[in-house]
Amino acid sequence: MKNIGAPINRTDGWAKVSGSARYSAEHPVAGLAHAFLVTSTVPSGRISRIDAQEAEAVPGVLLVMTHENVLQLPRETKAGKVSPPIGRVLSLLQDADVHYNNQPVAVVVAETFEAAREAASRLRIDYETTAARLDFEVAKQYVHQPEKVLTQKPDTRRGDLQAGLLSGSTSIDITYSTPVEHHNPIEPHATIAAWDGEYLTLYDSTQYMKGVQKTVSGTFGIEEDKVTVLCPYVGGGFGCKGSVWSHVVLCAMAAKMVGRPVKLALDRTQMFGPVGQRPVTDQRMRLAAMSDGRLTASAHDTIAYTSMIEDWIEPSGLMTRMMYASPNQETTHRLARMNLGTPTFMRAPGEASGSFALESSMDELAYELGIDPLELRLRNYTERDPGKDLPFSSKSLRQCYETGAARFGWSRRNPQPRSMAAGDKLVGLGMATATYPTNRSQGKASATIHPDGSAVFRSSTQDLGTGTYTVMTQIAADALGVPVAQVSFELGNSTLPEAPVSGGSTTVASVGPAVLAAGHALRLKLTGIAVANEASPLFGALAEEVDVQNGELFLRADPARRETMAAIVSRHGSGLVEVVASADPGDTSKHYSMHAFGAVFVEVHVDELLGTVRVARVVGVYGVGKLMNAKTGHSQLMGGIVGGLGMALFEETVFDARNGRAVNGNLAEYHIPVNADIGHIEVEVVDEDDPHVNPLGAKGIGEIGITGVAAAVANAVFHATGKRVRDLPITLDKLL
Ligand code: MOS
């Protein structure tokens, strides 16, 4: 295993920087027509009248697709209910109802993008509006309990909360809130749909090609294998591309209606409504502790909004269930309906927002108790998941705390708020705990070797820009026993062996073991071919006596008897040798609670006169099992921290209280961090050997980086200024 873990460069790096990597809207398709999505301008009601005359008169317009002329989808199919279709509840123009502003209500198709957009602007739609629920403060008076929180129960209880709250010497009862945040990948959603008779090819920017295939085929009521989804590159996902949204199906419907391939790309403003967002959360934290800091009780009550058409809950309380040894605990999740688009998974859904509340409240409790915030975490450290009542498969959090504190210089922190300064800036040091669950699904992969010795591994997985191509190549090379340069990895095609969603930080954990298994199986197959062939120097040996190095098989006892894989394949009649392997998670999750952990330390410099916060330094130390690539892995964790700084200081979607439309639905006014906002970030990964999570020992790193960061910043801001900001983002108005 000499390639796994090595800091090799991205195998897709050249394609990316040279511009030859094609994203979904960039594939050349003959006869392509261009679509522009039309979205509602009211938050609630019905379309009462559509006047398409002027739109249809724009030269080059091929179709104005509305609920009045759209093809009717089957209401029920074998694949599942179509209205609502399988997967998410979509807006497919099957009725005139409007449930939120910016909801898809029409699609205009034309010869050019410009003509489609021009015609879209000339489409007149009248609405009968009804009263909309747009105020979260009002909406949250009418909450309901969701059925599930991801795969877990909405509410949990252990011990006796009231008794626990009363038995502590100190308690707090504080509500934190987080705003609506939008994913804003640099590549907006885009789809090209091309029908060939009953067969449909979709180029789609997605985190889950198989999900697109299942949803689209199910919605049209056709066999799954009639739909092929291609997605070689994704320009960022962050969760919004984990679900299939309306525009994907609408694009295929439009292509069917015009009898030509159609491209539908969302513009930036259309990314703020019909493709999900992180919802507002209100999180009430109650903690009680003995004077030595040991928690006697904890409660985490989350209220988030969802749309009028579907339940989706931000799972903010899940981290509280497993993080600290609190004997008495309750967690609840409630939903308030609003006339906004359905929320969805976004950058560590639950742990990102939940860690802001939990880790801020732990900091507040530490001050109440007069105990160092890091020490308070250590006094409540648990080797067992108290929520699931299972041992952790591995947990290096103590080491993360210690390594991080040393590297950051936590000991130089004067615990007194407002006690540290640098020039005319107040300096604050804060910390928080990071965690994200280690999940895994079934994955499949194939491995093929050619007569020239080159090997190709394939799986229908995705690379969101995170390094899937690269780390799968590393795993494949080690599993087969050949140099990295001899292996390539193909993904982005739904006809390849099935892979799960690239969400929940699961791609390496799910697809990696399949690639590993495929490499081993291919090596074994080649060995079998060689030892059975009289022409091979290995003829007559037992397979288990044969070892591999650098693409050569050799007899362990007599290394002079050796042969290259290329020679074995060349002599083999079929021209290539191929295997397919599958890897299953089994029932490990019944026996172990599996999580990655980390500790994040932040130094802020606050200008009290202006209220500005600069994050001068972040140190994040993580226990994530075996890191697959030291370079891409560090980058990914660093990227997560940058996302956390965005959450802490900048990101917030503001909806117009009158009509529910995002007023900052663009990258000029929805602020994400830029280089100038980012100080010095240090990432360290501790050695961690986890034999349980999967055969690679790798825990997902896609999302843990963002967790804890917002709380660490808020805690540092309190330390600097004595002001506690409990609602994100920490903008300057809140500090003046
Ligand atoms: Mo991630 S929010 O599970 O794509």
Structural account:
It is a single chain. The protein has 3 domains: 31-131 and 186-236 and 241-271, Aldehyde oxidase/xanthine dehydrogenase, molybdopterin binding domain (Aldehyde Oxidoreductase, domain 4), CATH 3.30.365; 370-439 and 590-734, 2-Layer Sandwich (Aldehyde Oxidoreductase, domain 4), CATH 3.30.365; 441-584, Aldehyde Oxidoreductase, domain 4 (2-Layer Sandwich). It contains 17 helices and 32 strands. The strands form 8 sheets. Strands 3-7-1-15-12-13-14 form a 7-stranded mixed β-sheet, with helices on both faces. Strands 9, 10, 11, 16, 17 and 18 form a 6-stranded mixed β-sheet that branches. Strand 4 and strand 5 form a beta hairpin. Helix 9 runs parallel beside helix 17 (709-721) and helix 12 packs parallel to helix 13 (507-531). The protein is globular, with a radius of gyration of 27 Å. It starts with 12 loop residues before the first helix and ends in a 15-residue tail after the last helix. The model is unreliable at 78-85 (pLDDT under 50). It binds dioxothiomolybdenum(VI) ion (MOS). Dioxothiomolybdenum(VI) ion (MOS) binds at residues 207, 237, 239, 242, 345-347, 349, 503-504, 703.
Blueprint (SSEs and pairs):
Layout: H1 13-18, E1 33-39, E2 45-51, H2 53-56, E3 61-65, E4 76-77, E5 80-81, E6 97-98, E7 104-110, H3 113-121, E8 124-129, H4 136-139, E9 143-144, E10 156-158, H5 161-167, E11 170-178, E12 190-196, E13 199-204, H6 209-220, E14 227-230, H7 246-258, E15 262-265, E16 281-289, E17 295-306, H8 318-323, E18 329-337, H9 351-369, H10 373-379, E19 384-385, E20 390-391, H11 397-408, E21 420-422, E22 425-437, E23 443-449, E24 455-458, H12 468-480, E25 487-490, H13 507-531, E26 546-549, E27 552-555, E28 558-564, H14 565-571, E29 577-583, H15 588-591, E30 595-607, E31 612-623, H16 630-649, E32 680-685, H17 709-721
Parallel strand pairs: 1-15, 13-14, 17-18, 24-25, 31-32
Antiparallel strand pairs: 1-7, 2-6, 2-8, 3-7, 4-5, 9-18, 10-18, 11-16, 12-13, 12-15, 16-17, 19-20, 21-22, 22-30, 23-24, 23-29, 26-27, 27-28, 30-31
Helix pairs in contact: 9-17, 12-13, 16-17
The structure holds dioxothiomolybdenum(VI) ion.
